[in-house]
Write a structure and sequence with these properties.
Distance between the termini: 48 Å
Structural class: alpha+beta
CATH architecture of the largest domain: Alpha-Beta Complex
Number of helices: 12
Helix content: 25-40%
Shape: globular
Number of strands: 25
Number of domains: 3
CATH superfamily of the largest domain: 2-enoyl-CoA Hydratase, Chain A, domain 1
Strand content: 15-25%
CATH topology of the largest domain: 2-enoyl-CoA Hydratase, Chain A, domain 1
């Protein structure tokens, strides 16, 4: 465990001690945003950062190899990695990322193997680098039922048969597709090999096939929420660069006392809540954008007794944003997950995280969280954070099951690829990679072209009934506590 986190935890259990800490698992260490100048090597991840004034150079390490991957400005570095904190006050102490937990140690000098070598296009050299990177860092071969060693034997022979100037991209893509991991992909500048858990349905459109994915369903849901059959008391309002739609649900009985009992908010991403908020924008600025959006939501839903949080068509983004959203519904700090970076032959400590009440206005009310297979990545960690709150019920289908961050790498020939190298666990040690975060109330998967009453409204109505149940249970506990 990292020194400052160990100091904070003392002899207590990880989760109990985290609740007693005043910050993100650190004691009195000063909070800083950027990694200071120097050369820093990660524990796990296979990365070295050379931090200089106005520039950060990223090197990749794999065994004895060290290749330069990219240059970044400090703002881009913050946007890609987040904010750093020092583990202890002593000079030369390790630092770690506040949210992800990646820990880096200072090196005296850049290793001699680190080079700015020209691209090496030899197919077999690139195959070996790709295979060994996955062998070293990929955490889920067994979970996916893949014999990686056996794949090496069959696919390496096919690559070896290519001429020195041959194109191995189709072979690489075919091998990676067997993982069925949405966070695995490869790009050569023109072609993109995207790995899919399963094929996504299409339908005929005026300009060709239409992919019935989360983007399609987002548009359909917005049209429903703002149309004549909306379940809301008025057309859904938008916030956060049109990534959030919200409103109060219509009264169910016609009785004025029943009006505006519950609120509803659909969130379509865990990124991009401000105009121009991309990966090159520092993380603290992007978090301020989601804070502004959630200020609007909380103000608009003030007075409700419960909220339906719709994450069914949320493709993910950043954990910092997921935690900022969950913090709007938290009354007290709660443990949400821990994660461990995988590196073959080594054991790295798990890093624990909690959701903390937002400093802004909050709605600490019962929640019904709607999920499905299009609830992906940071939307899944958001689901875990919301589930950790004391009065939350999850409804729908399991999430996608790709919680790990993408570990981005580059082949010697310049092609980029990514893989899953982090193992997320809930406070009880349960891992949801591949299987997804399971709902408390399971519902059948509606066809993407089903009537709106089925594909959108059904789970909202179930959420309303579950919020009724949560409130009734809370009222019964209160009555019993007072001897009623």
């Amino acid at each position: 465990m990292m020194p400052s986190l160990r100091k904070c935890l003392g002899d207590k259990g990880v989760w109990a001690a985290l609740l007693a800490c005043l910050a993100f698992g650190v004691g009195a260490a000063p909070v800083e945003r950027g990694l200071p100048p120097g050369i820093w090597q990660s524990r796990g991840y296979g990365a070295i950062f050379q931090v200089e004034a106005g520039k950060v150079t990223l090197y990749e390490t794999l065994g004895a190899q060290c290749l330069r991957q990219s240059f970044m400005t400090p703002a881009q570095f913050s946007g890609s990695y987040g904010d750093w904190i020092r583990n202890a006050s002593e000079p030369g102490a390790a630092w770690h990322l506040i949210v992800s937990g990646m820990t880096v140690d200072r090196l005296d000098r850049l290793p001699a193997a680190c080079s700015d070598a020209p691209p090496n296009r030899d197919p077999l050299r690139n195959f070996d680098y790709l295979w060994n990177t996955f062998d070293t860092h990929y955490a889920f071969f067994a979970t996916h039922g893949v014999d990686w060693q056996a794949l090496r034997e069959s696919y390496r022979a096919r690559v070896a048969a290519l001429p020195k100037d041959g194109d191995p991209f189709p072979i690489f893509a075919e091998m990676l597709a067997l993982l069925k991991d949405t966070h695995v992909r490869m790009v050569d500048g023109k072609r993109v090999a995207r790995v899919k858990k399963f094929p996504i349905a299409t339908q005929a459109g005026p300009d060709g096939p239409v992919l019935l994915d989360d983007h399609y369903l987002q548009k359909q849901l917005v049209a429903y929420l703002q149309g004549k059959d909306t379940p809301l008391s008025s057309a859904a309002k938008e916030a956060g660069n049109r990534q959030v739609y919200y409103g109060k649900l219509k009264p169910r009985s016609g009785d004025a006392k029943d009006a505006a009992t519950y609120g509803y908010v659909a969130i379509f991403t865990m990124a991009g809540f401000g105009e121009g908020d991309d990966d090159h924008v520092p993380m603290d600025i992007r978090v301020r954008s989601v804070d502004a959006a959630m200020d609007e939501v909380v103000a608009g839903l003030r007075g409700v007794k419960g909220v339906i949080v719709d994450l069914r068509y949320n493709g993910g983004g950043e954990e910092s944003i997921a935690l900022a959203i969950a913090g709007r519904f938290a009354a007290a700090p709660r443990p949400v997950w821990s994660k461990r970076v995988y590196e073959k032959g080594k054991t790295h400590p798990a890093y624990a995280m909690q959701v903390r009440p937002s400093a802004g206005n909050r709605l600490p009310v019962p929640l019904a969280v709607l999920t499905g297979d299009f609830t992906v990545s940071a939307a899944e960690t958001a689901t875990m954070a919301l589930r950790a709150l004391p009065a939350t019920v999850q409804i729908g289908q399991p999430t996608r099951g790709v919680l790990s961050d993408r570990l981005e790498k580059v082949l010697p020939n310049g092609w980029s690829f990514s893989l899953s190298n982090e193992i997320y666990m809930d406070p009880h040690g349960k891992v949801f990679e591949v299987s997804g975060v399971p709902p408390d109330v399971a519902t059948p998967v509606p066809a993407p072209t089903s009537p709106d009453a089925l594909r959108f409204r059904r789970d909202i109505d179930i959420g309303t009934a579950e919020l009724d149940r949560l409130l009734q249970n809370a009222a019964a506990r209160t009555t019993n506590a007072h001897g009623g």
